[in-house]
């Protein structure tokens, strides 16, 4: 029951109307019986939103597009990983002191490590945006040999230089997949409603490969379907969303996230084909 003692957490971004984050977080609060509530706020003015978090005593906020970078200058402190990545997806309010964190990379690594080991492996990462950068930083910390590919070579080069990747290029270098152990799609290609698209030609996939698509709607993208057909191990994108949310939950509450309650809340929404599953990018 919401009362005067309820601690509020929220999602700030634009758009947020179809976000699944409230389902995941509130399921966790309910499972532990703690007096928290999580809501979504559509935010265009990030400065005023951050001031509101501080002024209203909001305990924590998830930060999504387009504010993951612009929010930083209004915070008091940054976790070292968030500072290295240059983006935040989480803000924690400790008595008016706001600290920014980034749980995206950790969520992706946890999803991958449930399926394969990372140290010493070669990974091909497709994409050049914020999610790709967070994942790339995490992979390098795990001792992965990394090749970054992007439709625009210059964007791939910039990301590769930032994390000291071993290689980069445009899609003319997709043949790198033939010698890779891990393939990660960190682009929106294949996301609903364009579900028949894939960057990766099927004939480049091989049965020694672990394929991770960070898209979670549809649950099985064309890339994952073709990877399964070629005998690859696959990693679902919803796992990254789930694990990064669990880490946020723990930062907000100081308690271990109840995964057995939070995961069904997410998977049931996805399997139900809700509008939220179609539009959420968080």
Describe the structure.
There is one protein chain. The protein is of the alpha/beta class. The protein folds into two domains: 7-103 and 242-279, Rossmann fold (3-Layer(aba) Sandwich), CATH 3.40.50; 106-238, NAD(P)-binding Rossmann-like Domain (Rossmann fold, 3-Layer(aba) Sandwich), CATH 3.40.50. The chain is 37% helix and 19% strand. The protein contains ten helices and twelve strands. Strands 2-1-3-5-6-4 form a six-stranded mixed β-sheet, with helices on both faces. Strand 8, helix 6 (153-163) and strand 9 form a beta-alpha-beta unit. Helix 1 crosses helix 8, helix 4 packs across helix 5 (130-141) and helix 4 packs across helix 8. The longest helix is centred in the C-terminal third of the chain and has 17 residues, at 237-253. The radius of gyration is 19 Å and the shape is globular. The model is unreliable at 274-281 (pLDDT under 50).
State the main characteristics:
282 residues, alpha/beta, Rossmann fold, 2 domains, 6-stranded mixed beta sheet, 6-stranded parallel beta sheet, 12 strands, globular, disordered C terminus
Describe the structure in brief:
Helices cover 37% and strands 19% of the residues. It is an alpha/beta fold.
Shape: globular
Tally of individual helices: 10
CATH level 4 superfamily of the largest domain? Leucine Dehydrogenase, chain A, domain 1
CATH architecture of the largest domain: 3-Layer(aba) Sandwich
The overall average pLDDT, rounded, is 94
Strand content: 15-25%
Fraction in helix: 25-40%
Derived structural class: alpha/beta
CATH class annotation of the largest domain: Alpha Beta
């Amino acid at each position: 029951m919401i009362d005067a003692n309820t601690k509020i957490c929220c999602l700030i971004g634009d758009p947020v109307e179809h976000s699944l984050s409230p389902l995941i977080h509130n399921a966790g609060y309910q499972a532990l019986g703690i007096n928290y509530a999580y809501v979504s706020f559509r935010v265009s003015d990030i400065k005023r939103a951050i001031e509101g978090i501080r002024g209203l005593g909001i305990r924590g906020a998830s930060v999504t597009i387009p504010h993951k970078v612009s929010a930083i200058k209004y915070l008091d402190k940054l976790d070292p990983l968030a500072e290295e990545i240059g983006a935040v997806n989480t803000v924690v309010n400790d008595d008016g002191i706001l600290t920014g964190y980034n749980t995206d990379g950790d969520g992706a690594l946890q999803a991958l490590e449930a399926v394969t080991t990372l140290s010493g492996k070669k990974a091909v990462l497709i994409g050049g945006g914020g999610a790709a950068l967070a994942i790339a930083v995490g992979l390098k910390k795990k001792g992965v040999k990394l090749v970054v590919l992007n439709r625009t070579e210059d964007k791939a080069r910039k990301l590769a230089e930032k994390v000291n990747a071993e290689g980069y290029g445009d899609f003319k270098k997709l043949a790198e997949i033939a010698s890779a152990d891990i393939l990660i799609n960190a682009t929106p290609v294949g996301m609903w409603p364009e579900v028949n698209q894939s960057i990766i030609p099927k004939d480049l996939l091989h049965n020694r490969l672990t394929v991770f698509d960070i898209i979670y709607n549809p649950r099985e993208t064309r890339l994952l379907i073709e990877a399964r057909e070629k005998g690859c191990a696959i990693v679902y994108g919803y796992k990254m969303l789930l694990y990064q949310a669990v880490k946020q939950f723990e930062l907000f509450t100081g308690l271990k996230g109840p995964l057995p309650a939070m995961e069904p809340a997410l998977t049931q929404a996805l399997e139900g084909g809700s509008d939220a599953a179609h539009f959420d990018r968080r």
